[in-house]
Write a structure and sequence with these properties.
By secondary structure, this protein is an alpha/beta fold. It is 31% helix and 25% strand. The protein has 16 helices and 24 strands. The strands form 6 sheets. Strands 22-23-1-24 form a 4-stranded mixed beta sheet. The protein has a 4-stranded mixed beta sheet with strand order 2-15-17-16, covered by helices on one side. Helix 3 packs parallel to helix 4, helix 3 runs parallel beside helix 9 and helix 7 packs parallel to helix 8. The structure holds ligand EPZ. Ligand EPZ binds next to helix 3, helix 7, helix 8 and helix 14. The site of ligand EPZ has 25 residues, from helix 3, helix 7, helix 8 and helix 14.
C-alpha cells in the first residue's frame, strides 16, 4: 500500500465499528460540484466472483467502505489476499484459495456475504455459508438463492444456522422468480457460469449492479446473453479466468448528493455518474419542482426553495429504488403539501420515520405506505441512525433543520458512504464528524 493511502486510511477501511457522530448545522443552501464514488453494490458481487477462478485481479474505482472491507475479510477466510494499490484500487490474489466456511460472525454484519454461495458451489461442489438472519426492517429471506442453487442440481440443507449446499456437478436449468431479487440473480449467474449446459433466469433483476456483474463474468470468459433485461441466458463454459474491471459509479450515493441539493433549495452537479442509472430518481426530482440537467457523465439539480409534494412508489430497477426511499422521505417532509411513499420492495423499511418525527416531520405509516404531510420547517435534535440509508436521510434533514442535528451510530453510514460529510461540506454544508 502506498504511503499516501496508508496515511489516509479512514476507519471504514479497517472494518472497525466507530461510535462517531455527525453534527449538522442547518440552513445552508448547497452549491457546487462533487464526484460520486464507485458502487458498493456493484463491487461486492464482483469481489465474490473472484472465487470462481485462480489468479490475480485488478479493480479500480473501488470505494473505501466498511462493507468492502468486510467482503475482503470474508475472502481472506478462503485464503484470498488483497491489497489496496492506491486509495480506490485493489489487487486480489486467489492463487492460494481454499474452500472454507463463511462464518456467522461475518455474515451477520453484512447480508451480501451470501454472494460467496454460488462461486463456492461452482468451484468446489460444496459450500457452507451462514444464514444472514434478519435486519433492521424485519425478515430478509434467502429462499430464492437456495431455490436457484437447487435448480442447478445442488442439494441444499440448513444445518445449525448454515446453508450447506452440495453438488457433484452443476447443470444448467430454468429458474423463474416470483419476485425480482438482485442477490439471488447475482448468485445464480455466478453458479451457472461454469455449469453444464444452459441456464435461463426469468424475471431476473436488471439493476445496473447486476449488469456490471454479468459484464465482469463475460470478461472472465462466461457466456451470458440478455444483459440489462429480465431474461438472462447463461451458456456454461468449462472454466473461467481472472479479469480486471472498473467499478460502475454509485447511483445511490449520487442520488443522495442530488437530494442534498433538492432539500436545501440548492444547485449541485454530481460528476462520475451515469445518468441513465438514475432515470426514475431524476424524474421524481423534476416532479418535486427541481430542474435536472443530464450530461454524459454528470447530473445537475437546481432546486426551488421548497419541494412540491409528490407520490413515490419503489419498484425493482428501472423503477424508483427502495435505497432512495428514506432520502426522499426527508425531502418530502418539508414538501409543499401531502406526499405519499409506498415501498413495495421492503414493506416495513420505515425505521427512519420516528427519527424524522423527532426533527418535527409529520409522517403517518399504514402498512407499506408513508403519508408525509409537508411542514414549513424542521428543528434540529439528537437522532439515531438505524441503517445505512436511514442515516443518510437524517443527515439530509439536518441540512435544513433549524439549529444543530446530531446523528449518532453513523457506523451505519460508513457501510455505504465514503466521507459523505466531507462531500457535503465541500458543497457548503456546515457539517462535521465527531469522533467517539
Ligand atoms: C440488494 O439487496 C441491495 N444490496 C439492497 O441495498 C437493495 O435494497 C436491494 O437489492 C433491493 O434493490 C446489495 O446489492 C448488496 P433483493 P438484496 O434480493 O440483494 C425479497 C443498500 O442500502 N427476497 O433484491 O438483498 C427481499 O426480502 C442495500 O445498499 C426474498 O423474498 O435484495 C426483498 O423484499 C439495502 N427471498 C426483495 O426480494 C430471497 O431469497 C428484493 O430483495 C431474496 C430476496
Amino acid at each position: 500500500m502506498s504511503s499516501k493511502a496508508k496515511e489516509e486510511t479512514p476507519k471504514a477501511a479497517t472494518g472497525t465499528i466507530t461510535m462517531d457522530e455527525i453534527w449538522v448545522q442547518g440552513g445552508r443552501r448547497l452549491s457546487g460540484s462533487v464526484a460520486a464514488g464507485g458502487s458498493k453494490n456493484a463491487t461486492l458481487p464482483v469481489l465474490a466472483a473472484t472465487l470462481l477462478a485462480p489468479g490475480v485481479y485488478h479493480f479500480t474505482n473501488v470505494p473505501v467502505l466498511k462493507d468492502i472491507s468486510t467482503m475482503l475479510q470474508m475472502l481472506a477466510r478462503f485464503g484470498v489476499t488483497s491489497r489496496r494499490t492506491d486509495a480506490h484500487s485493489i489487487e486480489i490474489d486467489t492463487r492460494n484459495q481454499k474452500n472454507a466456511e463463511a462464518p456467522y460472525e461475518l455474515v451477520k454484519t453484512m447480508r451480501a456475504s451470501i454472494y460467496v454461495l454460488g462461486p463456492l458451489l461452482a468451484r468446489y461442489g460444496e459450500a457452507r455459508v451462514s444464514l444472514p438472519g434478519g435486519c433492521a426492517w424485519g425478515p430478509r429471506p434467502v429462499d430464492l438463492h437456495i431455490k436457484g442453487m437447487e435448480a442447478l442440481g445442488a442439494v441444499v440443507d440448513i444445518d445449525h444456522g448454515y446453508i450447506v449446499a452440495k453438488a457433484d456437478s452443476l447443470r444448467g436449468s430454468t429458474v423463474s422468480f416470483d419476485i425480482s431479487s438482485v442477490g439471488a440473480t447475482g448468485n445464480i449467474l455466478m453458479a451457472a457460469a461454469t455449469a453444464a449446459g444452459e441456464t435461463v433466469i426469468e424475471n431476473a433483476a436488471s439493476e445496473p449492479e447486476i449488469t456490471a456483474l454479468a459484464e465482469f463474468l463475460v470478461a472472465m470468459g462466461a457466456r451470458i446473453e440478455g444483459l440489462g433485461s429480465p431474461r438472462l441466458v447463461v451458456k456454461g463454459v468449462p472454466e473461467l479466468h481472472p479479469a480486471d474491471a472498473a467499478m460502475i459509479p454509485d447511483r445511490i450515493e449520487a442520488g443522495t448528493l442530488l437530494a442534498a441539493a433538492a432539500i436545501t433549495g440548492g444547485d449541485v452537479e454530481v460528476t462520475n455518474v451515469d445518468p441513465s442509472h438514475l432515470g426514475a430518481v431524476l424524474t421524481k426530482f423534476e416532479a418535486a419542482g427541481s430542474s435536472v440537467e443530464r450530461a454524459d457523465r454528470s447530473v445537475r439539480v437546481r432546486a426551488p426553495e421548497r419541494p412540491e409534494a409528490i407520490a413515490v412508489t419503489t419498484q425493482p430497477y428501472p423503477g424508483f429504488p427502495t435505497d432512495m426511499q428514506a432520502q426522499f422521505m426527508a425531502l418530502l417532509s418539508v414538501g409543499d403539501g401531502a406526499s405519499s411513499i409506498v415501498d413495495t420492495i421492503y414493506t416495513d423499511r420505515f425505521t427512519h420515520v420516528a427519527e424524522l418525527e423527532r426533527l418535527g416531520a409529520d409522517i403517518r405509516v399504514e402498512g407499506n405506505t408513508a403519508f408525509v404531510q409537508g411542514v414549513e420547517s424542521l428543528s434540529g435534535a439528537p437522532v439515531m441512525a438505524t441503517d445505512l440509508r436511514a442515516s443518510a436521510a437524517l443527515i439530509l434533514a439536518g441540512l435544513i433543520a433549524g439549529g444543530e442535528t446530531r446523528v449518532s451510530r453513523v457506523y451505519h453510514l460508513d457501510r455505504g458512504y465514503e466521507r459523505l460529510e466531507e462531500k457535503l461540506s465541500a458543497l457548503g454544508a456546515s457539517i462535521r464528524r465527531v469522533r467517539r
